[in-house]
Amino acid sequence: MRICHAIAIALIVALTGPAFAVQPDEILDDPVLELRARDLSTGLRCLVCRNESIDESNADLARDMRILVRERLVAGDRDEEVIAFLVERFGEYVLLRPTTQGSNILLWVAAPALFLIAFGGAVFYLRGRARAKSETTGLSPDEQKRLDELLKE
């Protein structure tokens, strides 16, 4: 019974880990601004943790970025201005979902293009194999005679 309780507590702590990322001293008094800050934080990448948002990360840099987002919002910046400021400061890598402008269009187009190329190659290969099988003929009369002799033995 104690083991079940220990496992349950461990699972609860593990699953609520991201909820502990935003510290109580970071939370804004204005619930509307806090909601905007949390919304922005979920779309920004922690530069330490890689594919984790700053809202979920416990890294010191993520905390600094969360505070920076809140400071910009309190200063009166719009969401787009906060994002632009962070992209200017940390680079476009800070966005969990990159933009579709400039050289990033290559990232968005490459996967579907490679899929279509691979699909076309597979279709071409399979059609070639199907044609090769249909072009083969049965045994020649000499081969059939030899096979019959071998089967009789």
From TrEMBL:
- Which InterPro entries is this protein grouped with? CcmH/CycL/Ccl2/NrfF_N, CcmH/CycL/NrfF/Ccl2_sf
- The membrane-spanning stretches of this chain are 105-126
Source taxon at top rank: Bacteria
Q: Does the keyword Transmembrane helix apply?
A: yes
Q: Example GO molecular function term?
A: metal ion binding
User: Is Chloroplast tagged as a keyword?
Assistant: no
Annotated signal sequence range: 1-21
The residue ranges of the CcmH/CycL/Ccl2/NrfF N-terminal domain are 10-151
For this UniProt record, the keywords arranged alphabetically read as follows: Heme, Iron, Membrane, Metal-binding, Signal, Transmembrane, Transmembrane helix
Q: Record's Gene3D superfamilies?
A: Cytochrome C biogenesis protein
- Similarity comment text for this entry: Belongs to the CcmH/CycL/Ccl2/NrfF family.
Matching PANTHER family: CYTOCHROME C-TYPE BIOGENESIS CCMH-LIKE MITOCHONDRIAL PROTEIN, PTHR47601
What function is annotated for this protein?
Possible subunit of a heme lyase.
Its recorded name reads Cytochrome c-type biogenesis protein
Give the species this sequence originates from: Roseinatronobacter ekhonensis
Organismal lineage = Bacteria, Pseudomonadati, Pseudomonadota, Alphaproteobacteria, Rhodobacterales
